[in-house]
Fold:
Amino acid sequence: MNASEDLDIVREKCRLALGEFVTGNPEPFKMLFSHRDDVSLANPSGQAVRGWKQVAETMDRAASWYRDGEVIGFENMATFATPDLVCIVDVERYRAKIGGGEEVTPITLRVTTILRPEDGSWKVVHRHADPLTAVQPPESLIQN
Structure:
């Protein structure tokens, strides 16, 4: 498998699947994930899980928060690729109805995605997404 040759295809599949995710459909994105026990996910709500069963359940729950969403854009901050591992750092932008709200609202996430080859295709083995896209003061690290 050639990491740089397949990377554009993988990136496009992820972006299309995320477009479905913000409409409430997690299935296309779940298909891009490894289903092995070492897969992990840290979603914007702060929940971090490991293992395919927990990751799938967390993705189902998270997708249920979104309705009527659409992708606004992706800004690639960095990409590192080897034949055995790919790391993508993006800022993702969406609009969607969140929770029980009726107003379409902007969503911006800072995301790190790590992929590895499995059975002839790249699979997500870790995704960390959070809403921290602006510089925070040092005091924001203090937990009460």
About this structure: The mean pLDDT is 91. Helices lie at 3-21, 27-30, 52-63.
